[in-house]
Amino acid sequence: MLSRKLAGRRWETIRLLVDQWEATRPPAEAALEKHLVEYIKKEGLMRLAQEILFEGERPKGQLEPKRFRERLDRLCFSYSREEEEQLNYTGARRDYFKEISVGRIPTGIREIDSVIRGGLGQGELGIVMAPPKAGKTAILINFGAAAALAGGRVLHVTLEISRWLVLERLDMCIGGFTTEQLQRSTRNISKARNKINRVGGSIIIQDLSHEAVAPSRLEALIERHLPLSLVVIDYADLMTGEKQKDPRYELREIYQAMRRLAADFALPIWTASQGNRSTMDSEDFGLGQIAEDITKVWTCDVGICAMQTREEKVRKRMRLKVDATRGSSRNSTAVIEMDYDTMSIRELREEEVNATEVGTGTSQKDRDAYQRSSPKDRAQSRRGVSEAGKTGDGPRPIWRRARG
Fold this sequence. Notes:
Layout: H1 4-7, H2 11-24, H3 29-56, H4 65-74, E1 78-80, E2 86-88, H5 89-92, H6 96-100, H7 110-115, E3 125-130, H8 136-149, E4 153-158, H9 163-175, H10 179-184, H11 186-199, E5 202-207, H12 215-225, E6 230-234, H13 247-265, E7 269-274, H14 295-299, E8 302-307, H15 310-314, E9 317-325, E10 333-339, E11 344-347, H16 350-354, H17 364-372, H18 375-391, H19 398-401
Parallel strand pairs: 3-7, 3-8, 4-5, 4-6, 6-7
Antiparallel strand pairs: 1-2, 8-9, 9-10, 10-11
Helix pairs in contact: 8-9, 9-11
């Protein structure tokens, strides 16, 4: 009979099993003891893993690898899965960093990928949060295009705009063409799609903007198109729950269901969500300002905030801040150039970020006048500043002359 000393603190957990054994009195005590010993070790390993995760997610928590390693060594055991695969946890930890990097899909933005271990991983849910009409669809399209250009098979589910608009924006993003250039020549469309075909990637567009989509509908869709490398949902706030409830509870269930789908299919899923009113034209905000239900933030594995002031919008710039990730405590920000004419994203270098279009030492009043000016006036202003810098004299910028 398994002793209480061996069970230790787990005695209360397995007491029901022992009571059941005493009631049925099976003939093979050794077999029961073997199963109970394995049960105790598995429970101990799960508890240890939870402690490591909890301590690692504390704001100022510091892990003590030596202490956890000693406890893990004492819990070393092997067991057989249903497919008879032998696993040894002490041996597996040697391949830890290799395992967590397998199957990660990069976003194509170096600064973001460096924080999230190379990209969104299998079974992870990523959220892009931005104010209304601030480029959420463009960001998701670029994430999907980057995965396809890396040779992946991407499922893009659109719940907001038609599949033809998604297809046009993908051609613009991948080929670097404007809408007019695509309409003028079908050859440009072929050039864009051949880029993906050459690397063996593909993008499947599923238009569900005309129907109410529940998580079960999404699950059936993923099953039909397997195997997949990435799923993009534009965007999950427009989904409906299986049962009609209060909108906040409904959103909570939707995001939890998506997180389970990501885990069940071992797929990374990107989606987007609205920010509340305070995020509009805000210079900096976090996932705590997400619209409707904060539990969306607790559910996701990676959360990115897309921030853009009015001045940055004029200069076609945007900041993408990794505000939440389970893999790092570092909140890094990537500055990108968002070109809506070609739906493309380009990460800016540090020297490009520091350079200003208007110039340094300009007052806020001058900057406001510059923003109100037309593109033609801005071009003349830049030429005037350039000529004045070369000769020491020259025409005054229009945005300064406008002040009177």
